[in-house]
Amino acid sequence: MELTLLSLELTTITLVAIGLAADAFAVSLTSGLAIRHIKLNKALKIALFFGGFQAFMPLLGWGMGLGFRQAIASIDHWIVFVLLVFLGGRTIYEAWQDTDDDKPFNPLRIETLLVLSVATSLDALAAGLGFSVLKMPILLAISIVGSVTFSLCVLGVYIGHYFGDWFQSKVEIVGGLILMGIGSKILWEHLSVEVFQSVG
């Protein structure tokens, strides 16, 4: 039973991590476009910033959630559902907008990387609150989120450099759908348990 629960947690966290990494991956694609002479250390630098912030922000959100977890225990699944559907919907909406002016001028500058890292990891702050509400193992969660983001961003820089930004809006849409799907799954599971308990 414990192995099954751990497997479900790993699956959920991984899917959330992929959804959260969509923005960073998309920015990595555009960063790859701006780099004339691609080298591994450049891709690793970008990925380290994005992955690091994606790991830190959920930890911050998780810490914020500890203070009022008990007060919202009866509606926690609704909070997670609203957060993830909102984040997913916003990601999809932004994917349809024309944001060519937002492409980074020099993605290797520390100042640029800091701004982009914070901007692409704000959603992870809300996800960290969700992890707290669901009592997810936070060290496992941030490890997966950071690792997934780091790996996808390394890949994204190279794809962006060699293949252009054709994938950008599409990956954001997929990421948004994943976030909304996870939120719906969590809500459905909690409501199913409540219905079962009321019938029983």
Topology (SSEs and partners):
Blueprint lengths: L1 H33 L5 H27 L9 H20 L14 H24 L4 H26 L4 H32 L1
Q: How many beta-strand runs?
A: 0
Q: What's the Cα radius of gyration? A: 18 Å
Gap between N and C termini: 22 Å
Q: How many domains would you count in the coordinates? A: 1
Q: What share of residues are in beta strands? A: under 5%
Brief summary of the model shown:
The protein is 81% helix and 0% strand. The chain is mostly helical.
3D architecture notes:
This protein is an all-alpha fold. The chain contains 6 helices and no strands.
Notable characteristics:
mainly alpha, 200 residues
